[in-house]
Amino acid sequence: MSKSRTSKAAKIRHLMETEGSSVAENTRGFNAGRYESVQTLDDYEGLKAEARAMKEDAIERLPELIDQLRESVESNGGTLYIADDAADANRYIREVSEDKAAERVVKSKSMTSEEIEVNDALEAAGIEVVETDLGEWVLQVADESPSHIVAPAIHKSREAIADLFNRTFDPDEPLETAEELTTFARERLGELIEGADVGMTGANFVTADTGTLALVTSEGNARKTAVVPDTHIAVAGVEKVVPSVEDLQPFIELIGKSGTGQDITSYISLLTPPVESPTVDFDDPDTPIAESETDRDFHLVLIDNGRMAMREDDQLRETLYCIRCSACSNVCANFQQVGGHAFGGETYSGGIGTGWEAGVEGLDSAAEFNDLCTGCSRCTTACPVNIDIPWINTVVRDRINCEEHTEFDWLVEGLTPDDEPGGVSLQKRFFGNFEAVAKVGSALAPVSNWIAGTSVPRSVMERTLGIDSRRQLPEFRRETFRAWFERRDSSVENPTRTAVVYPDLYTNHVQVERGKAAVRTLEALGVEVVVPDVRSSGRAPLSQGMIATADDHAHDVYAGLAEHIDAGHDIVVIEPSDLAMFEGEYEKFLPEKSFERLSSNAYEVLEYVFGLLSNGADATALRAGDGDEVAYHSHCQQRTLGLEGYTEAVLADLGYDVVTSHVECCGMAGSFGYKSEYYGLSMAVGDDLRDQFQTAETRHRTVVASGTSCLEQLDALLARPSKHPVQLISPPS
After folding, report:
1. Which residues are registered as beta bridge partners of 530?
2. Whether residue 487 has pLDDT greater than 60
3. Phi, psi at residue 350, to the nearest 5°?
4. Contact between 731 and 524 (Cβ < 8 Å)
5. Phi-psi bin for 642: left (phi > 0), alpha (psi -120 to 50), beta?
6. What is the pLDDT of residues 150-191, one digit of tens each?
7. 290, pLDDT greater than 70
């Protein structure tokens, strides 16, 4: 393994051992709460669409909204400053603080202030900075960075925080319980807030019409921070501006539910500063508050720091719709294991973190963790504003690839079967061109399988390609699925329909039996089957950020299937990730009408079987379950498409007793589980699935899974083999 891969694997392993259990417990709790909380909404998808439309509109009209906001803030008696970058913002904040002769600034939680590193800038000027959010304060005391957008200290257990406080503050009695810790923090922070000269907050949203700040928090200290000192500085990215107070409604409904699973966040504060409440003189408790001064100073610092360039970037623009809820982190199986200290950059973490880091810090920061996104797509349905986070991560991966140049680029570009520049790493190029690898593997099988299984080639592959030697390699079949179909004689009398079974890369070269089972199943139900000679979908290169190559595949696939669509044939897909390409990413590659024609005529194989049975096909032609017990795991992208229910229904209707896994992801994720730097993480993610399928209820059940990656991972996790569900119901050959 290369030095860089070894160090990355070591860092991931260390974080899993030291922080993983706390991160997992909390993120999974948040994620489970989200599933439960959104069920209380009458129209969850409609609310998300409304929020998305509002963000699209706000970002489109951002310059004019900022002009309107300036008028609102100034008419209220405040000052609006637009900061070009972090240095500009910090200079302005420092000057305001120095003008007030500030000795202490208290801050509420703000990822934007983390982004500009304002604490360091103020402390360098001799000004004390105190975080008043409990999690942020814990990290300030520990001198650590946040590992989560919403819950910054999510990686720390109660015991670890107690040990930190006891060592740092040496209280009269050791602190142990959560109540003792929070009481201690509340009292200490209360004293620090009382003596503060300037209060600094972030802003979840800023309304252009009134200059109102919306603060969404789980604690009350943000309010104290804003109103106890007589000077209030709010920092926010320019993307936080929305047109009006009325526009806040869908965001307030969604942000708590999406982030922490709360029906509504504990504190929702709408402030239109400078507020008119009197300031409090804690040194003069005898004077009534009503007689105190109401002279307050307010500064809103809106920060660009790359955002306006992101607004002009067709691929990164969607990142600006983010409302920083953390749902993409909480739902992500990899994040659940390592947290933001691995799955994050200079400031931002989780699925959406790649877009933010690429936009405000640069590709170097994004490259540190971009590959931890496997494109499983679970975050897309979790996102309350429907951001296509996997696509953003793919775009960033592509840009990182394009920045990596070597003196031999011209040679590589001339010898590789893709459309990428020469700087793409050998590992990514290998997995991205797996179609070519599979063709050679099948042509030379079984010799190719024997060679690949011996120690010397495995060692070479680990050193050069980063393919972990502990992972069993796929075995190529000499007779491909297409070759099998071409040589067989089959005719369906009076067919009801004609279906094109798409020969995806793995079905064609490795998982040939599931292809055969699909053909036999459809023919038994009276469907004429065609298996065309067509390229792989492009999922493999897309997963490596090789967008140009994936685009080339997409056009070739459509060209190969168009004549069948013209003839009224249905496209039946066995591999869910390929169907997800047809119904998702192909929209980026194909003309609109071509995409619509393909996506509207493509079906997952068990979805198609369900449709046939629902429309009168003879179920007795298929293999009945007769109470056979099945443990079923659906593919990530199959669930994102909402298709897993068809498999469950078909199996149940045919008499199978089905238990379905609730695990978000098996951990394999295509090439991810093969890579030496991620193998340990991949297997750790799989532990939950293994445990669920080894309970008293499931340990003797037949294991079935819908996706190639899931099948490979299950075979590595369990002693008993797994199979595709279509293999259960297929008539005997």
Report:
1. 500
2. yes
3. 80, -175
4. yes
5. left
6. 999 999 999 999 999 999 999 999 999 999 999 999 999 999
7. no
Q: Are strands 702-705 and 267-271 parallel, antiparallel or unpaired?
A: unpaired
DSSP-based three-state secondary structure for 214: strand
203: number of Cβ within 10 Å: 23
In three-state secondary structure terms, 98 is helix
Residues forming a β-bridge with 349: 344
What's the rounded Cα separation, in Å, for the pair 279 and 227? 7
Among residues 593, 239, 551, the alpha carbon closest in space to that of 391 is found at: 551
Instruction: State pTM to two decimals.
Output: 0.94
User: Hey, how many other C-beta atoms are within 10 angstroms of the C-beta on 124?
Assistant: 10
List the one residue out of 660, 668, 626 whose CA is nearest residue 643: 660
d(CA 332, CA 318): 19
Query: Residue 519 in contact with residue 529, Cβ under 8 Å?
Result: yes
Rounded to the nearest angstrom, the gap between the alpha carbon of residue 69 and the centroid of all alpha carbons in its chain is: 32
DSSP 344: B
Give long-range contacts, CB 8 A cutoff, 24+ apart: 445-454. 445/475, 445/476, 445/477, 445/478, 446/475, 446/478, 448/476, 449/473, 449/475, 449/476
List of residues 6+ apart from 173 with CB closer than 8 A: none
Place of tokens 């004689």: 489
- For residues 89 and 303, the answer to whether their CB atoms sit within 8 Å is yes
Average pLDDT of the chain? 94
Burial (Cβ within 10 Å: 0-12, 13-18, ≥19) of residue 272: middle
598 within 8 A of 561, measured Cβ to Cβ: yes
* Beta bridge partners of residue 83, listed in sequence order: 303
- Within 10 angstroms of residue 7's Cβ, the number of other Cβ atoms is 12
CB 305, CB 357: distance < 8 Å: no
pLDDT digits (tens, 9 = 90+) for 94-128: 999 999 999 999 999 999 999 999 999 999 999 99
In DSSP notation, 694-717 reads: TSTTTTTSEEEESSHHHHHHHHHH
Least Cα distance to 633 among 560, 686, 569, 567 occurs for: 686
Predicted confidence at residue 4, as pLDDT, reads 87
Rounded CA gap, 624 and 574, in Å? Answer: 21
Q: Give, in order, the Cα–Cα distances in Å from 4 to each of 1, 11, 280, 335, 677.
A: 8, 11, 55, 21, 9
- In the block, tokens 């869908």 appear at 250
CA torsion, ordered 639, 643, 649, 652, to nearest 10 deg: -40
Position 49 confidence tier, pLDDT thresholds 50, 70, 90: very high
Sheet with 629-633, edge to edge strand ranges: 657-660, 629-633, 702-705, 722-723
DSSP per-residue letters across 231-273 = EEEEEEEGGGEES-GGGHHHHHHHHHHHHT--SS-SEEEEE-S
Contact 279, 294 (CB under 8 A): yes
Q: What is the per-residue pLDDT for 458?
A: 96
DSSP character string of 160-208: HHHHHHHHHH--SS---SHHHHHHHHHHHHHHHHHT-SEEEE--SEEET
Report whether pLDDT(262) > 90.
no
The Cα–Cα gap between 706 and 657 comes to 17
Cβ within 8 Å of residue 168, ≥6 positions away:
141
Query: Phi/psi at 722 (nearest 5 deg)?
Result: -115, 165
Contact 604, 576 (CB under 8 A): yes
Lowest mean pLDDT among 6-20, 174-188, 272-286, 358-372: 272-286
Tokens of 38: 């959104």
- The alpha carbon of residue 157 and the mean position of all alpha carbons in its chain are separated, in whole angstroms, by 24
